[in-house]
Amino acid sequence: MPPEALDRIVDRLELAAAELRSGDLDPERAASLVDECARLAAEAGAELDREVRAAEGSGPAGQLALDQ
Predict the structure, then answer these.
(1) What is the largest CA-CA distance in the chain?
(2) Cα(43)–Cα(9) distance, integer angstroms
(3) In the predicted model, is pLDDT for residue 63 greater than 80?
(4) Helix, strand, or coil here: 59?
(5) What Rg, from alpha-carbon coordinates, does the chain have?
(6) Crossing angle, helix 3-22 and helix 27-56, to 10 degrees?
(7) How far is CA 2 from the centre of its chain?
(8) What is the arithmetic mean of pLDDT over 23-32?
(9) Please, what is the Cα angle at 44 between 39 and 49, to 5 degrees?
(10) Rounded Cα–Cα distance for residues 54 and 29 (Å)
(11) Whether the Cβ atoms of residue 63 and residue 21 lie closer than 8 Å to each other
């Protein structure tokens, strides 16, 4: 995923958060936005994890390569 994709995820999260803060939502729309935020946050986290692994080597997710 290119860096622009992560920027788009952040933009979508910010828009959803602003809509949630507006307080003008029916409960179903609010629940839908919360679900979307969770999905987008997971997507962003996965992308950040991929970027860290690419920068540090190709070890298992969440683990950095050991210096020898």
Answers:
(1) 57
(2) 8
(3) no
(4) coil
(5) 16
(6) 150
(7) 14
(8) 92
(9) 125
(10) 37
(11) no
Q: Which amino acid is at 48?
A: L
pTM value is: 0.69
One-letter identity of residue 54 = A
Give the list of residues 6+ apart from residue 67 with CB closer than 8 angstroms, or none. none
> Positive or negative, the Cα torsion across 26, 39, 15, 17?
positive
- Compute the distance between CA of residue 64 and CA of residue 54 in angstroms, rounded to an integer: 10
On average, the pLDDT of the chain sits at: 84
14 or 23: which leads in pLDDT: 14
Q: Which comes out higher in pLDDT, residue 55 or 3?
A: 55
* C-alpha span between 21 and 19 (Å, rounded): 5
The Cβ-side half-sphere exposure at 43, using a 13 Å CA radius, reads: 17
* In the block, residue with structure tokens 């729309």: 29
